[in-house]
Amino acid sequence: MQAQLAAVQQARPGLLAILLSWGREFREWSAEARDRRRQVDDAYRRLEDARQASAQADAASALAERELAAATAERRDLENRRQAARRAVAAFRRTTQAAIPDDDFWARPPDETETRSPWVDDAWNRARAEVFLEALHLHEALILGAPDLVRRNLLGAMDLLQGRLSEAAGRSAIRAAWSTLFLVVPAISTTFASFDRLFAHLHEEELGWLLIDEAGQAVPQAAAGAIARSRRVVVVGDPRQLEPVVTIPDTVVAALRRHFAVADT
Q1: What three-state secondary structure class fits 230?
Q2: What is the predicted pLDDT for the residue at 209?
Q3: Which DSSP symbol is given to 206?
């Protein structure tokens, strides 16, 4: 293309030819030169576009190669970990009678799978029971060692539950009343609807453990106050089994979802 443009430049008519043709040859030559120059410019633009596309393709190829190498390394690591896990499970099988939650375990009837705890054998169960009994003995010893103090704190807890004790009693007295009650009664059951009234005297992270059962039925905002008052939280529930209890009509929920462009899920 560049050679053709040079040939057109060399074919420029001389002054005599221009004069004899009344300028016709010059006009024809100029038109051809402009056309050739335009073709050359277009070719250079296409060449530059091709170079940029090639550079982008090279960069994309290099990135894909790095990602492939990383994915291959991750797959190799996962495979090694899976093999190690299989060896550990095989060794565990040889030393215990505990139920292992493999495909064979879950293929059994529900009355078998629901009455056996995976990974738990008789020795572990006995050890757990012994630790629990020793904990009860420790609680008993504490109560017998300070019966008057425990009695006063329990009376304070009863006043709390019946709404007869106010913040004026002092933060330490309120915490002592709840702590003593939990010492005697390890778990207290309530609902989110009454939680704020029952534990109104407790502030942030003053409960040790919060266990939320059937959490799939609860909307997140219902649990906010209980979670804020607890240091540790265990949340157990399947929203596919029991859906959240929502008092807002479905039509209103759908309208809000559309307004804020929120997906169905």
Answers
A1: strand
A2: 94
A3: -
- The H-or-E segment that residue 235 falls in is strand 230-235
Contact 239, 265 (CB under 8 A): no
Closest to 192 in 3D by CA, of 174, 215, 161, 162: 215
Distance in Å from the first CA to the final CA of the chain: 60
Decide: 223 and 249 in contact? Cβ < 8 Å.
no
Distance of CA 197 to the CA centre of its chain: 32
Locus of tokens 């559309």: 258
SS3 121: coil
Residue 161: the pLDDT is: 84
- Quick count: other Cβ atoms within 10 Å of Cβ 51? 10
Amino acid at 222: A
pLDDT-based confidence at residue 69 (cuts at 50, 70, 90) = very high
Q: Structural domain boundaries of the chain?
A: 1-95, 187-265
